[in-house]
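input
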Amino acid sequence: MLGGSETYLLTRRPEDKFYWMKSCMKVNIYSGELQVMSPMTVARYENMSACHMGIHIYVIGGIDSKLKTLKTSARFNLLTNKWTQIPNEIPTDLTCGIASAAVKKRFILMFGGKNWSNFDCRDDSEVIIRIDTLNLHRTWTVI
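output
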């Protein structure tokens, strides 16, 4: 489970000091037990996308605590329990409500989206953007 909002938590108690917008939790599907993992480097409220590839989970876009559209992405290493910010911004401001997919154990594709800050849904929201996870120093590419 990644990010979120305290507003929608059914189990929230006043004594909880957990910052949900940066949260990362692992759920044991057999026992239902939650394990708190390292928090994300950037708070992501909702409308982000996440995909799993190998030992990593990638988190893309979303909105921050001030309801501004995020053009950033990050990678979580499941073995080391550490987050790494991907250095390049996504080349569009339509990063809310996006879908993403892992392809060929190497690429992440990002589909669709809108700009939360001004509820912008333009024709170019049909764009597909790709990043090569073996070359994260390169930029996201429109394909």
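quick obs: The mean pLDDT is 81.
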